[in-house]
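Technical note accompanying the year-one report. For the benefit of new consortium partners, we illustrate the data format agreed upon in the data management plan: each record pairs a sequence with a structure-token string. No post-processing was applied to the example shown here.
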Amino acid sequence: MTDYDVLRVFCGPDGGYGNELGVVREGSVLPERSDRQALAAKLGFSETVFVDDPERGVIDIYTPTLRLPFAGHPCVGTAWLLDVPELVTPAGVVGARLDGEFSWIEARAEWAPPRTLRQYATPAEVDALDEPPPGEWIYAWAWEDEAAGRVRARAFPGRDDGIDEDEATGAAAILLTDRLGRALNITQGKGSQILTAPQPHGWVEVGGRVFLER
């Protein structure tokens, strides 16, 4: 069995929740994309990362069914694990930094895969949502406190790959931040926390707490 770490990314203030992430630090043990895809499917996390160069931060990201050029929670978690100033993804170079208990990355909204950002009137409406049918990647959100930038969100990937609801989604948070043009404090899923901030020239920072599960 290939060795891998399991992280929880975007944990809540008490260290709970967060989205699990598999990281294969020695990507060279599985150089073929088909083998990587097979392992990602077997592990069943929303994403699994293969590190091809730990010093330069070169990474390769897979869901259980497809390869992604960029994804938020895998980059936040892997940057924390490798403690590197940047990650190299197929989409582009992702800046990274650690600030106290938070791991941050800086990326561009156009790198994020398409998502439908669907606003609701109240957090209660978001909480009451049933899982939609597969086919559309939906990020459901509502203001908890608009003046303070606090958001309630849930994410439904719609890929029919076993991930019916994503506990914490960095790429969708980047898209929402880019659309609204302001810093956000997002509570997603059952209790994960995602912080974001727009940056000059089309960049967006997204950060959260990361814990090593195993």
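Partners are asked to follow this layout when depositing records. The helical segments are 33-43, 72-82, 123-127, 170-180.
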